[in-house]
Amino acid sequence: MASSKLQAFWNHPAGPKTIHFWAPTFKWGISIANIADFAKPPEKISYPQQVAVACTGIIWSRYSMVITPVSH
């Protein structure tokens, strides 16, 4: 049973073999790392990480306004 669920997940059109899986996964990873920085003193905050958070936020905000969902 677990094998069939794993295989279904693996072969899903938006599964781990596609960008549709990995792009949000990395975006969530960057966001979680950013939340972990809340506990750091300001002088130890990673500026490249903050730039990555800002850029991905801008890209996803723009993308969310441009796409047109299609229902099949």
Structural description of this entry:
The mean pLDDT is 84. Helix content is 65%, strand content 0%. α2 packs across α3 (47-66). The chain starts with a helix and ends in a 6-residue tail after the last helix. The chain has one domain (5-66). The chain has helices at residues 2-10, 19-36, 47-66. It has three helices and no strands. It is found in: Mitochondrion inner membrane. It holds the Pfam family MPC.
Compose a concise summary of this entry.
With 72 residues, this protein is mainly α.
What distinguishing features does this structure have?
single chain; mainly alpha; 3 helices; flat; mitochondrion inner membrane; Mitochondrial pyruvate carrier; transmembrane
- Tally the beta strands: 0
Shape: flat
Q: How many structural units, i.e. domains?
A: 1
Quaternary state of the chains: single chain
Main beta-sheet strand count, sense and barrel state: none
**Count of DSSP H/I helices:** 3
- Listing every helix as H and every strand as E from the N terminus to the C terminus, the arrangement reads HHH
**Which residues sit in consecutive blocks of at least 5 with pLDDT less than 50?**
none
Quickly give the structural class: mainly alpha
Function: Mediates the uptake of pyruvate into mitochondria.
Protein name: Mitochondrial pyruvate carrier
Family: Belongs to the mitochondrial pyruvate carrier (MPC) (TC 2.A.105) family.
GO biological process, one term: pyruvate import into mitochondria
